[in-house]
Amino acid sequence: xxxxxxxxxxxxxxxxxxxxxxxxxxxxxxxxxxxxxxxxxxxxxxxxxxxxxxxxxxxxxxxxxxxxxxxxxxxxxxxxxxxxxxxxxxxxxxxxxxxxxxxxxxxxxxxxxxxxxxxxxxxxxxxxxxxxxxxxxxxxxxxxxxxxxxxxxxxxxxxxxxxxxxxxxxxxxxxxxxxxxxxxxxxxxxxxxxxxxxxxxxxxxxxxxxxxxxxxxxxxxxxxxxxxxxxxxxxxxxxxxxxxxxxxxxxxxxxxxxxxxxxxxxxxxxxxxxxxxxxxxxx
Length: 283
What we know:
This protein has 283 residues and is α+β, with helices and mostly antiparallel strands. The chain has helices spanning 5-13, 24-34, 40-53, 62-67, 91-109, 112-128, 138-143, 146-158, 165-172, 185-190, 194-206, 237-240, 242-246, 262-277; strands at 69-73, 82-87, 178-182, 211-217, 226-228, 234-236, 251-257.
């Protein structure tokens, strides 16, 4: 039977990003593949990344979660349309998956060294790629694989005349920018704009090319799905779990500086930070 590319796309990105009607069973199948709680993709990448990074943060009882999955009616909808849920015994496994994701993001994915390499790679690609972005032509896009990017990266690092030379050297030679400052509760009590103020002051002191700012804040979204209880009734996950009702959120906010200026910048910030944070607080 011939595979329809649109069917593959629907199950890959889900109803949020695919402009087409989803049947009940397509929605359930997407939840099994790419859903936030039950998706095989999320279960796989958390466990695999935790294993290869040598950390325990991403581990959770995935076997229990899979064993307790059920196709259940949604108790809040009169039509009783089916949805993917769990029995009550799997609720804690679903919670632990969300906490595993939270810890992996805060401790690994959003580690400052990993974040600055994203910035250097993005800046390299903006210089190196034709017109500064990947082609939207399907055939051309498929030809640009990791192999081509890595080859271009090493070539640009070795040849000063190549586009993206400086960023390529930073990546291949581990000459990445170092963290100068990050958001913290103590300084935010003094001034909620502490990171922006430090970033602006550092750019004024050392120049735009020597400083980078990297803010990110995740939203706390509820993870709602049906739960089959011991009395055979169906309840909403958010009614049974505060974790699933609010969802753990996280934020990072970093200021990075050129490694050649790191010590000078640290000394400067140690002397000037209180003056910088005081800006805008006087009434």
